[in-house]
UniProtKB/TrEMBL annotation:
Organism per entry: Cyclocybe aegerita (Black poplar mushroom)
Lineage start: Eukaryota, Fungi, Dikarya, Basidiomycota, Agaricomycotina
Domain of life per record: Eukaryota
Residues annotated as transmembrane: 504-523
The UniProt record lists the keyword Oxidoreductase: yes
Protein name: Uncharacterized protein
Keyword Cell membrane part of the UniProt annotation: no
Family: Belongs to the FAD-binding monooxygenase family.
One Pfam family of this chain: FMO-like
Record keywords, A-Z: FAD, Flavoprotein, Membrane, Oxidoreductase, Transmembrane, Transmembrane helix
Length: 530
């Protein structure tokens, strides 16, 4: 039996797998289980198999910093990305740790035993089993539970109907009348692919236009690939350049009003040059760039010239057994209806109960929406860590990067638990409130407040998904735990020592800074009066 406490990870998408790799590498831990409700690893990249599905961040940066890969193109298809994560799962021996088709239906903190009781349901048999874990890491993703837009009559439709995140490959679209609801990142990737076949007649039901950036995809030359394969430093430079480019994009889109005006002009001109002129008025958004997720165009605007693709802006009133009725009363007959209407990103679906006998959903509701210290810990939930918890999505950079930053932070927090220096760790309510106030104050002045989007509760409420700064800031804030913001059970003297050490170090840094300022000021005074 392992002498180290047991860790349960919920979800075997990129985050759960990356966390498991770190548990092995950083802590040499073998005593962990990943419960995955799906039949395979991969999460997003297992589920999204729609035509044209691919990353919008270059793969050199949308991959683990520890496992650089020889990508043939700048952007990976869902198959390439899934194959990458399958390769890592094998490489790090993770398969024996994963229990597939098992959904975590409850994780409840037992204050007496200082453990979570984890109940898991086998989706194939319906059987439930119970085990305990000292630590629970939630890696359930954000874009995971499909949302169907609440249009009435969906159940009456007699044709084929599915969500973009659950693409039905058995449906042959050739010769069919296909309705697509939505024009977000998913729809704009698959609509140009399915309309390549002129026999597929698509009506794209759109509600709000989107800002689209010109395509940036390229296939790599053999020379470039050989250089990156053989010179790791060159690869690191490429990663850095992508990181910096995306940070610049943050500045241009979110951080600076003047640059945003320039970007708006460029994107308006891109839409005008690419889309049919009759559609310009409808296609140019009136809300600021960045308010909704910016989309890298994958030939959606060009595809609008195709005679077999029509855009309908009238709004879908209801679904009938053979089509849809628009808000203007038109009945549009359809054989297939595809919902590209996004995900329930404003709800936290993991059923977990903490030491206040409150579920995380009740806790979030009480706070008007998700609220977590550094998007990672919630007061009242000891030893529970979230990857991509509230306010972590940056909207401009690689999620794998923010995931690695969070995992590095979590590895430091769990170190004393795994080393049995403490039994449990909890973030304070005051630190969480102060953190939430800080980021909400920034968000209240941000572009995210200026339109309806999945970033906000119910589309229009509190912004609970976005981090309101550049990825560099996220890294800075999560580099090292500030132990002053935590309480522990079963290791109070260990915590007191960490807090004292941090206070002394903080005092030393402050004194050094003061000395530099005083010396600098006296030097410049002398220089001025000389
Ligand atoms: C189509 C699409 C394209 C994207 N492209 C990009 C991109 O280019 N760049 C980028 O940075 N981000 C992109 N994203 C965001 C993407 O979701 C993240 O980058 C990343 O893959 C998320 O990984 P994850 O492991 O956190 O979550 P997920 O991939 O969602 O995995 C969560 C896993 O948890 C499992 N799970 C959930 N609940 C339970 C439970 N109760 N019990 C057991 N298992 C559970 C799920 O089955 C799933 O396998 C994209 C998203 C979508 C939908
Ligand atoms: N790699 C990539 O490029 C990529 C690809 C796919 C997804 N993603 C990620 O996944 C996220 C989700 O993308 P998504 O496209 O699946 O979802 P989404 O961005 O949330 O888009 C949903 C679309 O459905 C529309 N919609 C919702 N209800 C509607 C209704 N009743 N009638 C008409 N239209 C309706 C929305 O319109 P409104 O705008 O009016 O609400 C929007 O156009 C993205 O933001 C991105 O982070 C990334």
């Amino acid at each position: 039996m392992s002498s180290k406490p047991r860790v349960v990870i919920v979800g075997a998408g990129a985050s759960g797998l990356a966390c498991a790799i770190s548990l092995k590498k950083v802590h040499g831990l073998d005593n962990f289980t990943i419960y995955e409700k799906g039949p395979d690893i991969g999460g997003t990249w297992r589920d999204n198999i729609y035509p044209g599905c691919s990353s919008d961040v270059p793969m050199s940066f949308y991959s683990l910093s520890s496992d650089l890969h020889d990508w043939p193109q700048s952007h990976g298809s869902n198959e390439d990305i899934q194959a990458y994560w399958v390769g890592l799962t094998r490489k790090y021996g993770l398969y024996p740790h994963i229990e597939f088709n098992k959904t975590v239906v409850l994780a409840e903190w037992n204050s007496e035993k200082q453990l979570y009781t984890v109940t898991v349901e086998n989706l194939a048999t319906g059987e439930r089993s119970v085990s305990t874990a000292a630590i629970v890491v939630s890696a359930i993703g954000v874009l995971e539970v499909p949302r169907y837009a609440g249009i009435p009559g969906r159940e009456t439709f007699k044709g084929e109907l599915f969500h973009s995140g659950r693409w039905d490959t058995s449906v042959d679209l050739a010769g069919k009348k296909v309705g697509v609801v939505g024009n977000g990142a998913s729809a704009t990737q698959f609509v140009p692919c399915i309309t390549k076949d002129p026999s597929v007649n698509v009506v794209n039901f759109c509600r709000t236009p989107k800002w689209l950036l010109p395509p940036t995809r390229k296939t790599y030359s053999n020379l470039r690939r050989a250089i990156l394969r053989n010179i790791p430093f060159a690869y690191r430079l490429v990663r850095w350049s992508v990181f910096l480019r995306l940070e610049f994009m943050y500045l241009a889109v979110f951080g600076n009003a003047f640059l945003r005006r320039v970007v708006t002009k460029l994107l308006t001109s891109y839409i005008r040059h690419t889309a049919p002129s009759s559609m310009h008025d409808k296609l140019i958004p009136s809300f600021p760039v960045g308010c909704k997720r910016v989309i890298f165009d994958t030939n959606y605007l060009k595809a609008l010239h195709r005679p077999n693709l029509k855009v309908n802006w009238d709004g879908v009133e209801r679904i009938t057994e053979d089509g849809v009725v628009t808000k203007t009363g038109d009945h549009i007959p359809l054989d297939v209806l595809i919902f590209a209407t996004g995900y329930a990103a404003d709800e936290y679906p993991l059923p977990i109960v903490g030491n206040r006998k409150m579920s995380i959903q009740e806790s979030f509701r009480a706070g008007g929406g998700g609220k977590a210290y550094l998007g990672t810990m919630v007061p009242g939930f000891p030893n529970f860590f979230m990857i991509t918890g509230p306010n972590v999505v940056t909207g401009h950079t690689s999620v794998i990067y923010t995931t690695e930053v969070q995992i590095n932070y979590i590895m430091q927090l769990i170190s004393p638990i795994l080393g049995r220096k403490i039994e449990s760790l909890e973030v304070t309510q005051s630190a969480t409130n102060a953190y939430d106030d800080k980021i909400q104050a920034r968000l209240s002045n941000s572009v995210f407040m200026q339109c309806h989007s999945w970033y906000r509760v119910g589309g229009e409420g509190k912004v609970t998904n976005n981090f309101p700064a550049a990825a560099t800031v996220f890294w800075l804030w999560l580099r090292k735990p500030d132990w002053i913001h935590y309480t522990v059970i079963g290791g109070e003297s260990w915590l007191a020592k960490q807090q004292l050490r941090q206070r002394i170090w903080g005092g030393f840094k402050m004194s050094a800074l003061l000395c530099i300022l005083v010396l600098g000021a006296s030097y410049s005074r002398r220089a001025i009066f000389r």
